[in-house]
What does this fold into?
Amino acid sequence: MYVKRVYYDNLKKGNDFGTEIELPGWEDIEGLINKMDGKVVTQMIMDNGNEDNYFCIGGGNEGLYNVFISENDSEIVWSLVTDNNLKVC
It folds into this structure.
């Protein structure tokens, strides 16, 4: 899936001031992943223009992330899973 847009949240005092980036480059995506702290920037959602199919990364606190892909608006969900003994970098 190529990324046509990415949305990320930006929470301040319970309000979301998130932004959508059209046609993001890898630098945009990498920058957002690095900003994720689980408090202010908690998730980013990427799609290819079809809102029923998207890729989501959430978390960032303590370097921990939840990653999943949703097809057909959650009819099929694929999650990235790791063994508790495996360190993911």
Remarks:
- Residues 64 and 84 are 12 Å apart (CA to CA).
- The mean pLDDT is 85.
- Strands lie at 5-8, 11-12, 15-16, 19-22, 43-47, 54-59, 65-71, 76-79.
